[in-house]
Amino acid sequence: GTPTGAPGTVTGKWTFAVQMGPNPLSLAGQLTQQGAAVTGTLQTPLGDLPVTGTMAGSALTLKFSANLPQGPMDVTMNGTLTGNSLSGKATLGALGEGPWTATRAE
Question: With contact defined as beta carbons under 8 Å apart, do 18 and 98 qualify?
Fold first, then answer.
């Protein structure tokens, strides 16, 4: 099948892998890009989380807040779009930074 979404945008379905501590966290996401604005939803073990962000050229910034048992954690994901993949670094509140990748889902 052909991946959904327009070329050069992040619109579509994505599978994210975020390195948080020893285990990567796998998340499914749906993103919509309109101009430079990105909105979407991440499906997490904690439920669906709304995400907002911006796209500047191939540079993506996503932000969301995760409600953890120890309290809310603000997450900022900075990445670069290359074809049907994204990669970058996430700032995970008090947990520090971790690398992340994402691939466009079919």
Answer: yes
